[in-house]
Amino acid sequence: MPDQQSDQQSDQHSHRPSGTPRALRLGVAGPVGTGKSSILATLCRELAGELAMAVVTNDIYTDEDARFLRSAGVLPTERIRAVETGACPHTAIRDDVSANLDAVEDLEEAFGPLDLVLVESGGDNLTATFSPALADAQLFCIDVAGGGDVARKGGPGITGADLLIVNKTDLAPHVEVDVDAMVADARSARDGLPVLALSRKDPASIAELADWVRSLLARHRAGTHVPTDPGPMAPHSHSHDS
Question: Can you tell me the distance from the alpha carbon of 186 to that of 21, in angstroms, rounded to the nearest whole number?
């Protein structure tokens, strides 16, 4: 019974001190195809042996991201919940977060105490930000295949997220992108906030991401991390709006 065994291992290895705050809720946002689900899978592989974790995914009409994570075996399947937003992904992470909050709180009630809950937004554009009512911190993901100029274009997700990930750096030679220049543009846009160049094929960058999450969790437990709002999303419309 692998799921039960994994649950026992997570509980045994969790170093969450008694009386500490509820689980850290980390939002993961970014455009479609930038690798958000892959980042969640990577974090689960790196941290599930030491932290008690759960995941909430968001898709408009499917639970495909949740099924991807379950099939990858990165967590017991019951610790991965799917929210089908049925509308603009912005709505479920910013305007009306009730469905996501319900999913997070259900997971904490069922499997708590948890150390970390990852909440993945549905894929959207550069304006996506999480409400502080849902996420204690948020990382935003762009990728080199989207073009080297993406970081310069800004937007609340790029400029204000707690961490900006420039993902899929191993693809840079194939899409003729200068990763160093892209990261420099990102740092310039973020006024000192951290930027991480990441590749699932680069163990050093994966270790850096895991260490960032550990540090964030330590600050959350100590009460020194203050959730910040990257700012309201830019006005936008969708073809299905009436």
Answer: 32
Residue 16 tokens read as 């969450």
Q: What separation, in Å, do the N-terminal and C-terminal C-alpha atoms of the chain show?
A: 49
- φ, ψ (nearest 5 deg) of residue 136: -75, -30
Write out pLDDT tens, residues 109-139.
Answer: 999 999 999 999 987 778 889 999 999 999 9
Cβ neighbours of residue 24 under 8 Å, at least 6 residues apart?
115, 116, 117, 136, 137, 216, 217, 220, 221
CB atoms within 10 A of CB 201: 11
3-class DSSP state of 225: coil
3-state SS, residue 239: coil
Whole-model pTM: value is 0.87
The confidence band for 209, taking pLDDT boundaries of 50, 70 and 90, is: very high
Closest by Cα among 232, 229, 228, 217 to 24 = 217
Site of tokens 């009512």:
133
In the block, tokens 């911190």 appear at 137
Burial of 169 (0-12, 13-18, 19+ CB in 10 A): buried
Residues 12-56 pLDDT 10s: 444 555 566 799 999 999 999 999 999 999 999 999 999 999 999
- Could you say which DSSP state residue 95 is in? I
What residue type is assigned to position 148 of the chain? G
Handedness of CA 49, 59, 102, 4 (dihedral sign): negative
